[in-house]
Each structure stands twice: as C-alpha cells, then as structure tokens.
Design brief:
Blueprint (H helix, E strand, L loop, with lengths): L7 E4 L5 H12 L3 E6 L2 H13 L3 E6 L5 H15 L4 E4 L14 H29 L2 E6 L12 H21 L3 E8 L17 H10 L4 H12 L8 E4 L6
Parallel strand pairs: 1-2, 1-4, 2-3, 4-5, 5-6, 6-7
Helix pairs in contact: 1-7, 3-4, 4-5
Bound molecules: NADPH dihydro-nicotinamide-adenine-dinucleotide phosphate.
C-alpha cells in the first residue's frame, strides 16, 4: 500500500514531543493510529485532540520496558483494525549526566527504554509482519549516535544500539518488510529539559533550547518514510538544525 491514508500505525511514546507530533501528522494524512505511552492523562489528551479533528486513534497504556505492554499495543491494532502496517518505536528518555554523578537509575532507564524497549517492539510486531507478509519498523534514533559528546555518553551509547539494531533488522528483514531509522538532532520537546537540573548538562541543554527544531520536522520525516511505495525502503534519515554541528 502506497501512502499514509488508511495505514494502521502504532506509535510508542505518543503522549508528548515527537511522538505526539507524529501522531497528529499521520492522523491528518488519514492513518488509523494506536498510540502508546505511560501517562494516561496526556495520552488521552492526544487521542481526544485527534478524534476531535475527525481522525482515528486509540490509546493504550504501554510501558515499552514491559514485554506484555507491547504485545497489547500490537494486539489492539489487530483487534481494532485487522492488521498492523507500521510500528514507530519512539519512546525515549534523555537523562544526560557525567559518569561521576553516578546516576545509575537514569542509565538503567535509558538502557531499558531504548534497547529493551525497542527489542520488545520488534518481538511483538515481527511475527505479525511475517504473517501478513508486509510491515514497517520506524525506529527513532538520535544524532547522538554519530558524535559522542559528554555528558550524554550513556544516552549516545543506547542510541548507537538503536542504530545497530535497526541496520541488522533491515538486513534480516527480506523483501516483504521495510525498516527505517530516523535520527533527530536537537528538537524542541519536553525531553530536552530532563537533565536541566544537572550543572554539567546545563550548557548542552541551553544550546539545545536555542537551536532546537519543532517536532513537526521529525514527524514529516517519519511520514516521508512511511508514504513511499511498498518496494521502497527509506533506510535512514538524519534531520538536524542547520546550526547544529
Ligand atoms: P518527550 O519527553 O517529549 O517524549 C518522550 C516520549 O516517550 C513520551 O511520550 C513518554 O511518554 C515516552 N516514554 C518514555 N519512557 C517510556 C517508557 N518506558 N514506555 C513508554 N513510553 C515512554 O521527548 P522527545 O519527543 O524529544 O523524545 C522522543 C524520541 O526522540 C526519544 O526516543 C528521544 O530519544 C528522541 N530524540 C529526541 C531529541 C530531542 O532533541 N528532543 C533528539 C534526538 C532523539 P510517557 O512518559 O507518558 O510514557
């Protein structure tokens, strides 16, 4: 199926930022959406905003670190719409800090959200895609995977894992599936302020605040990868502000 109209698309981390903007963009193009996140009130607001404009969206409380939650996300798509065309693995957390701060809970959160979370999505959607003989993974990485800039080393390492997992998945996918990595640079979202209380992260946070792109810039890049004809795989898109080194 070419285009976005009518496609069944599940998005993780859809309650704010890039996930929310992507949901709004795809809904505007006629996609049928299943949206996952942990914060119920924020997710409900996103779903309500889309349906108020005549779009189609269902919310599923889903923590990507929990295997069963991703299963429920994909099962909801199958029960409600009969298939799953695309899984956008977007959920993420940017808790940057220097190693000496020993913020090990933050390290764990980034590893479990970006690596285990992505694998849980693959585990839930791949059998569905194989059965259908079509499907697309869109994984949200980061420009942090291309240049290591402390104090975001742990974040960069987990996003490097996203890049590697995406490329390996693409090579194993065969002719029926499509696999896309979308790597944003500084984007103006709530996620950008997560390390704001940390002194060592402050200069980076300030720089991001000054130059960040709107999340709609990433939403349209994701849309571009989805709307290509079946046989066309947009393997990788990097989107950064022109002033970002
Ligand atoms: P936000 O904080 O606005 O959005 C993050 C989303 O992820 C929220 O919807 C949050 O929802 C969800 N989330 C976090 N942890 C989990 C979890 N365990 N399970 C399910 N959902 C979760 O930040 P962004 O929009 O900026 O981030 C989106 C993606 O873009 C992330 O992967 C991030 O790494 C990436 N990115 C962002 C950049 C930027 O500059 N903003 C640059 C490069 C990449 P909830 O809390 O409700 O679960």
């Amino acid at each position: 199926m070419t285009g976005i109209q009518g496609k069944v698309i599940a998005i993780t981390g859809a309650s704010s930022g890039i996930g929310e903007a992507t949901a709004a963009y795809l809904a505007g193009k006629g996609a049928q959406l299943v949206l996952g996140a942990r914060r119920e009130d924020r997710l409900d607001a996103v779903v309500d905003g889309i349906t108020a404009k005549g779009g189609t969206a269902t919310g599923v409380i889903a923590d990507v670190t929990r295997r069963g939650d991703l299963q429920r996300l994909t099962e909801t798509a199958l029960h409600q719409y009969g298939r799953l065309d695309v899984l956008v693995s977007n959920a993420g957390t940017m808790a940057v800090s220097p190693f000496d701060d020993l913020r090990q809970d933050d390290w764990d959160a980034m590893v479990s959200t970006h690596i285990t979370g992505l694998l849980n999505g693959i585990g839930a959607a791949l059998p569905v895609f194989r059965r259908q003989r079509f499907g697309q993974f869109v994984n949200v990485g980061s420009t942090a995977a291309y240049v290591v800039k402390p104090p975001q080393t742990v974040y960069a390492a987990t996003k490097t894992a996203v890049k590697v997992l995406t490329e390996g998945l693409r090579q194993e996918s065969g002719p029926d599936l499509r696999v896309t990595l979308v790597s944003p640079g500084f984007t103006n979202t709530e996620g950008i302020g997560k390390g704001a209380g940390l002194e060592a992260a402050a200069p980076m946070i300030r720089q991001r605040d000054e130059i960040a792109m709107p999340p709609s810039a990433i939403a349209s890049a994701i849309g571009y990868a989805i709307e290509q004809p079946d046989g066309v795989d947009v393997s990788e898109i990097v989107v950064r502000p022109t002033v970002q080194a």
